[in-house]
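hiii, so i know i said id send this last week but things got crazy w the move. better late than never?? heres the sequnce for the chain we talked about at the cafe, plus the structure i predicted for it. fair warning i was half asleep when i ran it
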Amino acid sequence: MKQSWAAYEGDSGRDLARTYEALDPDRLNAWLRDLLPAPPGAVLDVGAGSGRDAAWLACLGHEVVAVEPSATMRAEAQARHEEDRIVWVDDHLPALDRVLRLGCAFDLILVSAIWMHVPPEDRARAFRKLVTLLKPGGVIAMVLRSGPSPAGRAMHPVSTAEVAQLAHRHGAAVVLEDAEGAPDAMGRADVIWHRIALRLPDDGTGALPLLRHVILNDTKSSTYKLGLLRAVLRAADGAQGTVQTVGDDRVRIPLGLVALNWVRLYLPLVREQLPQRPGNAGPEGLGFVSPAWARLDDLAPFELRPGMTFTGPRARALHAALRDASRTIARMPATFMTWPGSDTPIMPARLARMRAAGARLSLDAATLQGFGTLEMPLHLWRALSRFAAWIEPALVAEWQRLMDGYACRSSRTLDPARLSRAMVWDDPDRDTRLVREIVLSAFAAGPVHCVWSGRRLTPDRLDIDHCLPWSAWACNDLWNLMPCDARVNRSRKRDRLPSAGLLVARADAIQSWWQVGYVQPGTVSADRFYAEAATSLPLARADPPDIGEVFRGLQAKRLMIRTDTQIAEWKG
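okay and structure toks below
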């Protein structure tokens, strides 16, 4: 589509923006009223142009991701519409790779006056991407243009019948179709506009039936398939920044991250001598448990997370454990977890040539990539990201059932309470001690201010606030911890999510704190700050990312949490 949006740059783009803005969005979009989600819904506006419709949706109380590939149009839109509820993304159909990296699912996707720019040979791919981004029950609303192409702008024939056929292939239902069309609002006699809306009754991808097959029906000689699936689910739930798209329908994640989650899951099970295969108790018979595990005995599972650094014997032991787990994953569950009725792996893994262990091990993106990669279908990754809260209990229940069965074969009875404790994903405690020490040290160099109120802080009025609240997402990453006035934190913000507008209003204060507290020259926390941000936030590829890119990642993560949890907002 590059030739299409090139015509929207420069003076042509500015002229078109003025033309678009002259039209009343309330009148143009009246047909959408009954299709809109209850505010605040998550809306994707593909080909947002001058921002007219995105601003209209934002003013109705919705959170909008506005996609526009023309730099001129984006600049015009952002100058005309400063609504805080709009996140602008430079992206385009058919790929929408940058939107996919945000990790958001949408209640409504608006594709207005853009489908005619998509070449017919790319439309199946484009539609598949749109369905992937839609929530169950969500709506795709399309406005199609019929008529001759203006000079310099490549357009292709469109029809509601073609869109309806694409919808049928993806399990979406047509809920509104205007095949006859409506006259052009600008008075062009040879231009007709057609409207069609589609609703997705379920996930529309087949991901959930596939997950049910793997969890409940697939043959298992050990818990390894469930272990792999749960390790990947934990990556999908908290490490969106690690994913890379491969073509149109697959993603690639670091095998070292999967192995890290694997060790974190199995460490308490091995300690409790819970059987992971017939005849097993403790480490015996588990290929991934090497002598290195004995040197991890004093390690708390929640310490095994990206951004952490280990030194000395513990670093070498953990490196060996990750190496052995990577090899076990690649050779066993990743090979034998196959599509129903096929020998083709669902999530094939490729081992890398691993470097020798050193005296220091930093769990950053480069290190985790160094163990290899694991690929999986995009629709499966998206389902794990969206439905982790529902999928994980099914995984845990089946895993416990398998362990009970293995124990019975050996005439053992497992204590249910002990079993349940060992299966808990052990998140870290709400820990702000390190950042408190950093802030107290910063007092010696100059004033430190509350990121929310701007008030100058003193040690006796200092709180450390989780910007994205702990109740919504248990995250102690440095970028998420900020100095705050105790009265503001405890009486006003509490466990609410900062609104989009408040985050924008306090952008300078937040980024200034990051610079002073974490990444100025000489600080010991810069590597950890960037490693955590690159793992847990959907950042553009950069090494290291800059402060502005981390902030944009924070905005995207806020939107994802807001749309997924509907947590209460705080506007400051």
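btw The longest strand covers residues 134-146. thought thatd interest u
miss u guys!!
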